[in-house]
Amino acid sequence: MAEGTLAQPGDVIARRYRVESWLGQGNMAIVYQAKHVNTGKACALKLVHPHLVQRKEFVDLFVKEAQLGARIGENPHIVDVFDAGVDEARKVPYLAMELLQGDTLESYLKKHGRLPPRLAHTIFEHLADALDQAHGAGVIHRDLKPGNLFLARDRKGQILLKVMDFGIAKVLESHEQRTATQIGSPAYAAPEQLGATLRSLAATQGISISQTVQASTDVWALGLVAYEALTGVQPGQYWGVDTYADLMICIALEDHPAASHRAGDYAKYLPYGFDKWFTRCIQRDATARWQSAGEAVRELMRLLDAHASDPITGELKLAAFDEPAPSKAARSVKPLPKPMPKPAAAGPLRPSVTGLPLKLQAAKATPSPAAAAPAAAPRPTTTPTPTTAAPKPTTTPIPAAKPATTPATPQKPTTTPTPPPAVAAATPAPAPAAAPASPTLLDSHLVSLIDSAPSLTDSAAVLTDSTPSLTDSAPKLTDSAPAQSDAMSQRPTRPMPPPKPQAAQAAPPPLRKAAPPPVPVRREPPPKAGAPPMPPKERARLQELAMQLELDSKWSELCDVLRKLEAAEPTSERKARYLYQLAIVLLDRLEQTDRALELLDEALDKNPSLIEAFDHIVAIHEGRADWKKIERAYRKMLHRHAGTEDTALKHRLWFKLGEIYRDLFENAGAAVEAFRMALRSASREELIPDHLTLADLCANIGQLDDALASYQAVVRADPQHVDAYRAIYRLSVDRGAYDPAWCAAAALAFLREADEEQVGYFQDYRPEGRIQVKSRFDNELWARHVFHEDQSLLVGKVFEMMARAAMKAKVEALRQRKELLALDPFLRQDPTTSSVPFVRTMGWASRVIGVTCPALFVRSDVPGGIVAVPTEPPASVVGQSLLGGFSQEELAFIAGKHLAMYRGEHYIKLLFPSAEELRVIFHAAVKMVMPDANTPRDVDSRAETTAKVLRSFMGPREQDGLRAVVRKFISEREEADIGRYFRAVEYTATRAGFILCGDLGVAKKIIAAEPTLSDDPLPSDKMKDLLAYSVSESYLVVREALGIAVGQE
């Protein structure tokens, strides 16, 4: 094994680690997946690049990393480095560390946009724990960034944060020549990390900067990570600059803007009080910051908790929207979807030309304030040349997140685009259409010619490769749009005019960026395929040559070198990176656009995840106003990703394709299908705007049933979406559907958002007293239209089979403890003959919902309402609270909710009113059928004991039924989430009570007054569920089945 050679699969390092595969590499090291030859334990093995072993600072880095791990001690949130040394055969230092499966926070944010509040809560708590322990040991990370935070999972499948690469920043900072690569992550660096020269310059302006790093140095970076994680903005977006020199000036000398101001439209995701918290994180004076990560995170958690809580208490007050919904006129203006991904507000860092900070250069040239203020660099827009026959619309980027829209009268959508607001102080004249200006090769954050693989500090130590599989088929859209249907003429008695559309607001034109000047040069053919592997020294020589050729502006020769490097790469992903860089040179420097398109397409074929290449393809076709090729590019990209799990990308592709069909081709049918495909991959945050878009389009083309279904989906996702209720009311009126219109009017009246017409319609058909039903529930109606969506039928069947035995076991236990309640038979009342209104209501309700009424014992001497008693046959005791003072509607709600709990699937919740007890019983049922089944450790022993007890109370028929249901459950591979089932049963019972009373106000009053168990949903959550259910298709079916629908004969 020669000294200085790369490790290959099968090689043994330091006589104990066998290399299995390559994981990644960075500027300093290569990371392999390996196994210990004796124990077989898998690990990540980091080896210094062979050509760097002679540089002492890199060898010292490895030693330091291992020493820091020992100094900090064990922590579940810090990557464990458990071995270090030098491989004698290669003379190369190595580190052995734990092998993780997952993704970095940086990659997560690229895929999902931002962190959900609950996940953010977990991640920052873990980060604070890791940093506080490290700081307590005297270790400062100095390179905290999303790329150094790894999201793994523990043995229970819960998210577990791992902090990587402690101590690297200090070694890199000690170099005399500090470049963007060497300093690590300048966008997250605190002022005290930027050196003495800048500290002296700040002192001349009266700004104090600490001379040494300390625990609050990491707090600075923590604040920036939190800002990016909660908003989903691009890395470094807060500073708004594109050079390293300007970044240093912003950090050390300029005022820091409020986070909410810099975040723009994304500020709505920041909790109230975040600006104050963030400002304290990035104080230049280190002593003025939060003095520990734990202190900072505790305050951030308090802000997040306050932001997330929105209970409906007292008189129901629903939160206002984050931004007003645009008017119909504004929504009818549909721009062309922008290329992906969302452009960053600032480009990659690059060195200034003269070596002086650019802002200081500008100050010397022009002392005016305008000259010193940097303008943001937006994505360029394109304006096609109009023709006399059929002019195509001007195209502008669309925002990635779609705002909520206000429903309006159906009309044909226009295709005139609305330009987005400008993002700079001045707006220059429009420039000719061009592809997006790209960073130079030296500046590219995608591919560095020094080393094209991801940085080691980002995730190479722990990431594994994954190649998406492609299929040969993609969903096909129809090319024909359905004809617009006429609105139905029948309406309720009252006139119901549609709401008037609001006036649209004009927006200023966007900034544009001119293309670089053309450099004519000859076109070189690619090297021959099948060349032998390139030696490492030759690769390094070509990389250095490529950098020099770029500095010398020798673009043709640079293309030759890039082709050679691409041909030598072993993987498709790395080949794609070089093809992308080659295309950028052809596009920006040589003006060979067609050839650049070919290479960009080839790069995407090799690596469909290279979204930047697709971004350029769309921009080029957009500049040429070639709409058909744009449509083909999107469909081809979807074909590349068929069968992959990248739902975020699929959603964005399908949604933008829908906008192309809608706005450019005016093919509404194809647009509807594309938007529906987008909904299949939509995240929780995208569901509402996507459904609103689809509903608006369906309403415009006369598909009123589909539009109504989309608005109902909006209400399910957000029961506080008032405009969706208004749209349901309007569409129902247009269809002549009286009952859905009345239900929507009832919801609006309850929310105090109804207009005069809606209030009148609600009051005209509001039932007085007990509802007059003409039919009754059956099991199918319960299962399909009353059960909550989270209620598992199979889990319910398991509990139904266990309920009788569980009741007998509980009665026996109470008898042995002498706690069994004795019921006086003289206090029992018959619902058919009783004079007590509630007892009679219980009899009526039991007949309507198809549930056998339990034995009712009236106790005027016992306070409270109604409570179930564990006896056989089942019984309930009615307390003095229900003997007077309630209206018929209120008694109907109480009776319906209580009787719903006597269904077979629900009864066990009355006997054991906690989710943990039901969890034990469920796993006991599984144990009774499959004794060797794996059950959670925390309930395993209790489940076995419970199974033995319950088996003694079950007969052969009951055991046979249980056996069949459990085996069905196992075969279906369904998840047994008992906590979710427990809450779903409560939601279902609440729905049953609401159906019988027919009034949201009555339901709210009773829900607020009744006791709530620890595992039950909050009263506010119950009301949100009822609000959504009150306009759902299921509730409408129930009303029709009972014969109580408005307008029903």
UniProtKB/TrEMBL annotation:
Compositional bias segments (type: Low complexity): 362-415, 423-437
This protein's UniProt keywords: ATP-binding, Kinase, Nucleotide-binding, Transferase
InterPro entries referenced in this protein's UniProt entry, alphabetically: Kinase-like_dom_sf, Prot_kinase_dom, Protein_kinase_ATP_BS, Ser/Thr_kinase_AS, TPR-like_helical_dom_sf, TPR_rpt
Binding site for ATP: 46
Lipid biosynthesis listed as a keyword: no
SUPFAM superfamilies, per the entry: Protein kinase-like (PK-like) (SSF56112), TPR-like (SSF48452)
Gene3D superfamilies, per database record: Phosphorylase Kinase, domain 1, Tetratricopeptide repeat domain, Transferase(Phosphotransferase) domain 1
Stretch list, region Disordered: 323-437, 466-537
Protein kinase domain: residues covered: 17-301
GO MF term list: ATP binding; protein serine/threonine kinase activity
CDD domains (alphabetical): STKc_PknB_like
Compositional bias of kind Pro residues: 494-520
Protein name according to UniProt: Protein kinase
Lineage: Bacteria, Pseudomonadati, Myxococcota, Polyangia, Polyangiales
